[in-house]
Amino acid sequence: MPSLVLAQGQGASSFDYLQTAAIVLGAVGVIVAMIQIRGDTHSSRQARQADLSWSMYVAYVDPAIRKARGTAEALAHSPQCPRDAREYHETLADGSPWTNMVDDSQDADLRRLLRFYNQLSILLSKDLIDEEFVFGLIGAGLISVWPALSPAVSYYEHYFPRSTEPEWSEEPRLIYHEVPTLYERCVRWNQQRRIRP
Question: Can you give the residue ranges of every domain in the chain?
């Protein structure tokens, strides 16, 4: 391989100049290709983010989720809204949600909404959907229904199904554990949005 820098007093043949030019052009080509790949990766990520954001919107307006949101909204602003996991257990919990699949109960609606918000939080934490789009769409609703969702999350974290009925456990299990994170992130986003000029 020819040296790119010729020793003083050495004559360079046109072949050496061509090889040097080829190496420089090759390096420039590699750099341009890397920039292009990086740009394509960014475009692919944006396209995937747009697709997942749209899928989230489709799920959000699905009739089952709309019904669940309505149930949570009504409950959150009702005097019958449970304040904690124990009240949720006494007033709303199905008791055996895995064997008694009553699909139109308030508990079933809240579980459906919790699954939706939990999955949404995971997608946001992985930066797979756009935060501005998500919180612009669901933010006010999530904040409004939080009084109903919070005791439901706590109930499902602390009550475990047993042979006769659910029993309390001090050690929480990781079910719907992303929902409080989503709520906190939404509140922060909402506060930052208010202070923007």
Answer: 1-47, 61-195
